[in-house]
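Category: protein sequence paired with discrete backbone structure
Discipline: computational structural biology
Format: plain text, a pair of labelled lines
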Amino acid sequence: MDDQINRYKRQYQNALKTIDTLEKIKAEIDFKLKSNPVCSNLHKDLRTVNLDIKITLNEIEHIESHIHQYET
């Protein structure tokens, strides 16, 4: 059981790093959109990053529920 908790905790840490990276990418895209607000490629990239953020947040929520289950 300790192996599973440790695995979930590692996944949790990796997901937090991923969120941090995605937020930085999103900020870069937002900055570029300020100077070129009609660029379709940037809008596509922004949609992709936003989707990746939502997916990663869902993964974090899922992992948190498993960690909470094992710790109680």
